[in-house]
Amino acid sequence: MTCLAFSSATCATLAQPMKMRLIPDNCFPMKRPPLWFLLPLLLLTACEGFFGRRTDTDFLDIPDYSVRPVAYVPIQPTWDGLVEPVDVVAGWDELIYVADAGTEEIISFDQAGNELGRFSIPGLTALAQDRRLDLLAAGTRDTVIGNNSFTLPALYRINLKQPGTYGLEQAQVTRLLTHPYYFKAGTPTAAEEAVRFTGIAPLADNRYYLARTGPSDNPNQFGGPDDAVLLFSADDVYISPVAVNTNLGLFRDYVRQPASISSLAQPPQSPAVNPRGDFFFCSVQEDYLLKVQLIRRVETPNGASYEVENYPVGDTSKADGFLYQPGRFTRPADVTFSGDGTNYIFVVDAARDSLYQFNALGYEGANPPAGSASTKAIKVSFGGTGSGLTQFRNPQGVAYLNEIVYVADAGNGRVLRFRLTVDFD
Fold this sequence. Notes:
- The protein is mainly beta.
- 1% of the residues lie in helices and 38% in strands.
- It contains one helix and 28 strands.
- A hairpin with a 7-residue loop joins strand 22 and strand 23 (345-349).
- 44% of the residues are buried.
């Protein structure tokens, strides 16, 4: 394992006070819009968290929609001014972090949308935060080996906690893992230079999974196939690739072309954080019928085993769509899980320009509101190609915090926020 220390670039100031921008009453239309997606312009202000006190949001009225009583409301303003946001993360510090591949920067925001700081990472592709509040960023590293120049995949550990301060302004890279040197030595090959890290999924105990993809699919090669999910210790020590047990046997190459990965350990911080080692992954392998799957980590007397979760499919009395419905996705770019006990699963599909929501049983939709006569999941997925408030162009990331869904809308250079109508008090 190669470990290097770096000083951070100077970033924008972190310690800005949280702001609440109220929308004047005359900004709201006096009549009900004819369609559910013509929604009032709403602004969510910061909620109680690492840096502030809860802001009263009682001024936000509950929208009234006769066509879709349970639907996602776009929250204004959109977070514009980005170039190519390819990931968005809800931090354990209750800040929001965006990976902008266009500027190769991590950008931090409070929940009101105030920018707090920036930090440069070359070749930035994915982002995560562990429970110690360190950021883990997937990018690249330029290096010279044997008089030859290489641009290699790299994982950066970024410490946000410095004496007397916290955030990206004074952050430092404290460790750098470079492919393939976390598991082997020697001069890298052209195939190893073509590998990319596509997702990071921290666990409750700060171990983490790293999704990797590349040109070599040999399951017997040293270090496992390029397409793999790798397990690392909390101290960034490589443990092993994940092999998955199925009815047909044990596969070291079960995960093909992973585009993203997410564990069940999600904010907010609490004793109820899911301690299991389960993870969701998205695959863009064309011949995969199930492109988003949950892999369960099962502890046995002989050690840990990884098995595919079997979600129900087809019972239309329960839902109109299903996570494991064959062909449900075309090019899923990201997946996340709500850590507040609602246990929702969110997926963005870059090819379909859509956001999908599923409940804990894999039924597409939101649970019916209290007092409802029906137990059927209510479909709230939406999208379509465009730049409207409920449209996307190549969405690449999704995050969830405090009943708000965040989408990294890469093609439109923005982050969009949404909230369910039933979540307005």
